[in-house]
Amino acid sequence: MSTTTPRTIPLLSGVSEILDDYDGFVIDLWGVMHDGEEAFPEAVEALQKLRAAGKRIVILSNAPRRSDSVAERNEELGIARDLADAVLSSGEVTWRNLKERTLPFYQKLGAKTLLIGPARDLGMKEGLPYEFVEEIEDADFILLTGIWDPADAVERYDFLLKPALAKGLPMVCANPDLEVIRGGNRELCAGAVAQHYEKMGGVVQYHGKPHQDIYRECMELLGVHDASRVLAVGDSLRTDIAGANAAGIHGLFIAGGIHCEDLHGLKSLGDMMRLVTLCDKYKEYPVAAMSIFRW
């Protein structure tokens, strides 16, 4: 009887164990640095010590808001601006594409858009050359930033998506995440609604992890030219680890984030086996894993 040995993923007690292997660090926010309500003290300490060690750091977030807005929110949560060389968000990359209209997708867009998202995302409107309308019948495309209510299911948006599909309206999605954990509770993100629209037959343009345009800009901000000397820290196999792998950089997986219910914090050999199984499911593998981001 033959046996097979599953792929092994090193489990670290702290990022300091691999400090000398990397010059630049790409740090996710939600699930790594905070839970939407407060910063994780161990993660803040890790950033402080990475900075003290002279490492280049870019905070890379799928937040559907401008980068400066994300940095301001970080400060409110206890993550100081000087803990990173730059903050880059999916909202920032989306806004720039809407503003500059360089890509063929944007060159074809009309002048009127309907924004679907909560009030905290309304800053995305500022400075854009579009008319923001209130009715789907008046729109040329949809700008999707998020959901209205934490309890929403994707079907709530069908009253907008079905007529949008009938009109052939394209959608711009400023956050590819499917869900987040806010203060211990799961809630949908824009990516889930966009994915629902795609399954209906709609066309969606995404910006943010794991899509590579945001990684190209991130690498420029880091100023590290050897991708093998960059480590991306994230809690999502679908976005953080997949995006890092596609960009040719290494991924450090944080098990206590979005996949925490599947992995139980990596406290036993059985949990490690579950991690391997989960990575097999996504076909994405980090170079190492940690329960939480710590020094």
UniProtKB/TrEMBL annotation:
CDD domains: HAD_like. Coiled coil: none annotated. GO terms for molecular function: hydrolase activity. InterPro entries: HAD-like_sf, HAD-SF_hydro_IIA, HAD-SF_hydro_IIA_hyp3, HAD_sf. Pfam families: Hydrolase_6, Hydrolase_like. Keywords: Hydrolase. PANTHER family: 4-NITROPHENYLPHOSPHATASE-RELATED, OS08G0542600 PROTEIN. NCBIfam families: HAD-SF-IIA, HAD-SF-IIA-hyp4. This is TIGR01459 family HAD-type hydrolase.
